[in-house]
Every structure is written in structure tokens, then in C-alpha cells.
């Protein structure tokens, strides 16, 4: 029932899309911040 509602209705598809967007933003922020922290560590170790 819940799967049918999630994939079969407009509200369910919008909810699924919202969840996927939030997960994608979280992954992007994690990768972005990890890259910036590595740059900062390299800058501190050089001088």
C-alpha cells in the first residue's frame, strides 16, 4: 500500500523527489566540505 502510494500518486512522487534532492545536497555538501578541509590542511602544512 505505501509503495503504491509513493510511486503511484503525484504527492508520493513529489515526496520521493524531495527526499532524493535532500540526499543529493547532503552528498554534495559532504564532498565539497571534505575537499575544502583538505585544501586548508595542505595550506597549513606548507607554511
Walk me through what this model shows.
The chain has about 45 residues and is mainly alpha-helical. The chain has two helices and no strands. The longest helix is centred in the middle third of the chain and has 37 residues, at about 10-45. The mean pLDDT is about 95.
Would you tell me the overall average pLDDT?
Answer: 93
Q: What is the number of helices?
A: 2
Along the chain, the helix and strand elements come as HH
Percent helix range: over 70%
| Poorly predicted parts | none
What portion of residues belong to β-strands?
under 5%
Main beta sheet: strand number and arrangement? none
Radius of gyration in whole Å, from Cα? 19 Å
The separation of the N and C termini measures 60 Å
Q: Tell me, briefly, the overall form.
A: rod-shaped
Secondary structure tally: strands: 0
Q: Helix- and strand-based class?
A: mainly alpha
Brief sketch in words of this structure:
The protein is mostly helical and 47 residues long. It has helices at 2-8, 10-46. The protein is rod-shaped, with a radius of gyration of 19 Å.
